[in-house]
């Protein structure tokens, strides 16, 4: 059976990122957070825009003050006061200084700022009580960024710090990748919606809600297609529709070996190429990954959509999404790096067990103990059919194939989940 890492490599290989020209839209800077920049940004401005002061104090000529001490201070004539936002008018001559404030422009002639704590003022004269270093407290024009060079590359996620940089560079609007479209449907005769009363034998379609939340958190747009019966005709219709409108299709259920598990057969009848049918992991063994020949799509799609037939069990849906679907959405979204899940090495608080036959994922919580993360396994059943104890978790501990036991205090690899 295919290993988890081989499955991940196959999946990432199948994903073509959105197109830099076609799959973009323009957004206002105020609503651009978490979007992916589609065009590199260059600024015609230097940062800082001009030499400016890093302190409240006095702008001086270093030459004039280099030997100053409290006993033998240099005494300078104050010829101008320069608050922030003001353009200096004078050129500082030998024996002169300008009163200056943080962020204000350094006047011509001056090359150094003396902080006001190292001075004494008497009317329009300032006594310099200690020698500064040459050019001290001057932030030089273009020392942070040079006009015309690349300010931000394409393919990065815009978080607060990038948004601040773009604001400073006066970019009120930006070209970002459109959100990937992810169609979601659930399969099973036993499923009802959250509103429908439960009859004996029925269960609520929780997967649809879990997947919609996961897709939205990933920055993609969920297209909710509802519940589909275990009926080949209905399934074929919804799959053909999903493939035509989405970049990625997620179904849950119907990929195992039961009599009513039709997904793989329908994919084949729709001429899909099936790349993965099962993965050596627990939960999540039955996993179908397929691609379609380019569809006659009403919505232009950059590629043939990627189909994930996820298992039906609720825990398996979440685990396979985090492990395989999220990296695929990230690559598709235009982000140029950091698609793969991040694993941390932490200490396990609890004993962790597996039968050793498949890579095993156990859910739990990372606690900070004296600044060091420790994994606490969720209490209760770790059956893939149990959903209840997944609530309030924020990490998955991973036991590789062949590893049957991790003892308390032993190190374990943990996948940190973004929902905690
Ligand atoms: P299947 O692979 O279709 O046999 O589904 C495996 C298990 O997952 C069965 O016990 C289903 O009842 C359950 N299941 C399937 N789909 C969903 C869903 N959308 N929400 C919650 N549980 C589901
Ligand atoms: Mg089913």
Descriptive notes:
This protein is α/β, with parallel strands linked by helices and 420 residues long. The chain has four domains: 170 residues, Molybdenum Cofactor Biosythetic Enzyme, Chain A (3-Layer(aba) Sandwich), CATH 3.40.980.10; 56 residues, Molybdopterin biosynthesis moea protein, domain 2 (Alpha-Beta Complex), CATH 3.90.105.10; 85 residues, Molybdopterin biosynthesis moea protein, domain 3 (Molybdopterin biosynthesis moeA protein, domain 3, Beta Complex), CATH 2.170.190; 74 residues, Beta Barrel (Beta-clip), CATH 2.40.340.10. Helix content is 18%, strand content 31%. The chain is built from seven helices and 28 strands. A six-stranded mixed sheet has the order 7-4-6-5-9-8. Strands 16-13-17-21-20-18 form a six-stranded mixed sheet, with helices on both faces. The protein has a five-stranded mixed barrel with strand order 22-25-24-26-28. Helix 4 runs parallel beside helix 7. The longest helix has 19 residues. It starts with a helix and ends with a strand. About 1% of the residues have low confidence.
């Amino acid at each position: 059976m295919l290993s988890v890492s081989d499955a991940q490599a196959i999946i990432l290989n199948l994903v073509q990122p959105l197109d830099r020209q076609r799959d973009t839209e323009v957004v206002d800077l105020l609503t651009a957070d978490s979007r992916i920049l589609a065009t590199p940004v260059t600024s015609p401005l230097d940062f800082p825009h001009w030499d400016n002061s890093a302190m409240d104090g006095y702008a001086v000529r270093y030459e004039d003050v280099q030997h100053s001490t409290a006993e033998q201070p240099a005494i300078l004539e104050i010829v101008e006061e320069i608050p922030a936002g003001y353009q200096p008018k004078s050129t500082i001559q030998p024996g002169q200084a300008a009163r200056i404030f943080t962020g204000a422009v350094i006047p011509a002639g001056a090359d150094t700022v003396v902080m006001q704590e190292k001075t004494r003022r008497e009317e329009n004269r300032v006594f310099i009580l200690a020698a500064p270093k040459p050019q001290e407290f001057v932030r030089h024009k273009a020392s942070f960024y040079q006009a015309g060079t690349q300010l931000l590359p394409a393919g990065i996620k815009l978080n607060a710090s990038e948004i601040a940089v773009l604001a400073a560079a006066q970019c009120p609007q930006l070209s970002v990748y459109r959100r990937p479209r992810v169609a979601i449907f659930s399969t099973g005769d036993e499923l009802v919606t959250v509103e429908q009363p439960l009859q004996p034998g029925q269960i609520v379609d929780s997967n649809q809600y879990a997947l919609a939340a996961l897709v939205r958190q990933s920055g993609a747009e969920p297209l909710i297609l509802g519940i589909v019966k275990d009926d080949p005709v209905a399934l074929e219709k919804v799959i053909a529709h999903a493939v035509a409108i989405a970049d990625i299709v997620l179904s849950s259920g119907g990929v195992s070996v039961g009599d009513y598990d039709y997904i793989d057969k329908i994919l084949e009848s729709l001429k899909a190429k099936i790349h993965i049918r099962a993965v050596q992991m627990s939960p999540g063994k039955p996993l179908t990954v397929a691609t379609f020949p380019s569809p006659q799509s009403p919505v232009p799609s950059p590629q043939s959509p990627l189909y994930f037939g996820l298992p039906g069990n609720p825990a398996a849906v979440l685990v396979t999404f985090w492990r395989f679907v999220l990296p695929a959405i990230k690559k598709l979204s235009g982000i140029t790096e950091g698609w793969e899940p991040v694993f941390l090495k932490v200490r396990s608080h609890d004993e962790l067990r597996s039968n050793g036959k498949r890579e095993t994922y156990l859910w739990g919580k990372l606690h900070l103990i004296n600044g060091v993360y420790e994994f606490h396994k969720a209490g209760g059943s770790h059956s893939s059919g149990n959903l209840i104890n997944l609530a309030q978790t924020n990490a998955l501990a991973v036991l590789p194939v062949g590893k049957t036991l991790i003892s308390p205090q032993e190190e374990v690899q943990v996948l940190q989940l973004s929902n905690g």
